[in-house]
Automatic annotation (TrEMBL):
<dbReference type="InterPro" id="IPR011333">
    <property type="entry name" value="SKP1/BTB/POZ_sf"/>
</dbReference>
<dbReference type="InterPro" id="IPR000210">
    <property type="entry name" value="BTB/POZ_dom"/>
</dbReference>
<feature type="domain" description="BTB">
    <location>
        <begin position="14"/>
        <end position="90"/>
    </location>
</feature>
<dbReference type="Pfam" id="PF00651">
    <property type="entry name" value="BTB"/>
</dbReference>
<protein>
    <recommendedName>
        <fullName>BTB domain-containing protein</fullName>
    </recommendedName>
</protein>
Length: 344
């Protein structure tokens, strides 16, 4: 097999050569610094101090260490160590080849600064808290509006070169990432969001239809402002948990109605008016609820109730508190509802 020296990660003064198989069946050589790798990783430190064979293998005058990891993963991993600002400049998303490669090896070689940085970034999109999730959801709603109002004859469904589905991110990829790299904190919001994706909308099919100038293109552009997912990367076990969680979420829909029936409150200042106005809101169809997302229903309903002028302040206070408590209850029960522990 031919050996290629990596163009940027082959340092003349490097003290060890790492040799790894590449996907194109060649071998890639990285000449790096033992001291630097050892400082970041105990696993590497141990690897370099293991007693070497009687005649240690050498390459280009320095010890050679053969590793079985993927050479491309190693490139991303070493770049994080040698050029840490790459973590600031690369897009940190669950389906990025760079992020997945760096994460795989930072787990294997135990380099927490890479793993921690990536997780912190990803949790901005797949959050731990309900408040952050609502902010993201509101951003997605207004983003979808922007995409819907595009003149597609000129924009072809893209803003700054990106489709809506690519900007919001794929919940199936978030599940894949969370499970494969052992980052369970991403899973509740990822499972929740996947549960409200229309199963007929596949991210890759959407892409193909968008890129092909065929008749289905117009329909695809319209559909592309809805959430879609890469369904094919979800494992059977994850599907079972998804369906189980969806059942639990359905049973929460009674709770959703209960939130409205706390009005009129005991301290209501406009008996009759509040009750009537709340029943109007309760019976209204929420135009933005294109998918069956109970948490979206909650935060939209509460925003509309908060802006309502007819409901008295006392009732509004009760309604908003009750609504938030109920939404939080649903949010906090997501890990249990989707049995996330079965995947850890
Ligand atoms: Zn009232």
């Amino acid at each position: 097999m031919s050996i290629h020296r990596h163009p940027s990660l082959y340092f003349e003064d490097g003290s060890v050569v790492l040799l790894l198989p590449s996907t194109d069946e060649s071998l890639v050589a990285y000449r790096v610094h033992r001291s630097l790798l050892s400082a970041h990783s105990e696993v590497f430190a141990d690897l370099f101090t293991v007693p070497s064979p009687a005649v240690p293998e050498k390459y280009d005058g320095v010890p050679l260490v053969k590793l079985s990891d993927n050479a491309q993963d190693m490139e991303h991993f070493l770049n994080c160590i040698y050029v840490p600002r790459i973590l600031m400049t690369e897009a940190i998303t669950v389906d990025s080849v760079f992020v997945n490669g760096a994460m795989r090896l930072s787990n294997k070689y135990s380099v927490p600064f890479i793993r921690d940085f990536i997780i912190e970034k990803l949790e901005e999109r797949w959050p731990r808290t309900y408040g952050t999730w609502v902010s993201r959801d509101l951003e997605h709603i207004s983003l979808a509006d922007k995409y819907k109002s595009l003149d597609n004859a000129t924009h072809h469904g893209k803003i700054d070169g990106q489709y809506y589905c690519d900007v919001v991110g794929d919940p199936a990829s978030a599940i894949r990432f969370g499970v494969d790299h052992n980052v369970p904190s991403l899973l509740p919001s990822a499972f929740y969001e996947l549960s409200s994706v229309d199963p007929s909308l596949d991210l890759d099919e959407c892409h193909t239809a968008l890129e092909n100038g065929d008749e289905s293109r117009e329909k695809a552009i319209l559909e592309s402002t809805k959430a879609s997912a890469r369904w094919s990367i979800i494992q059977p076990k994850e599907f079972r948990l998804l369906i189980g969680g969806m059942d639990k979420l359905k049973s929460h829909s009674l709770t959703t109605l209960g939130f409205w029936f706390t009005i009129p409150s005991e301290s209501c200042e406009r008996q009759g008016i509040c009750e009537e106005q709340v029943s109007v809101l309760r019976n209204r169809r929420w135009g933005r609820l294109e998918y069956d997302s109970i948490l979206r229903y909650f935060h939209l309903a509460m925003a509309i109730a908060a802006a309502d002028q007819k409901i008295c302040l006392k009732c509004k206070g009760v309604l908003l508190k009750k609504g938030r408590d109920e939404a939080l209850k649903i949010w906090n029960s997501l890990p249990k509802d989707f049995s996330i522990r079965c995947l850890e």
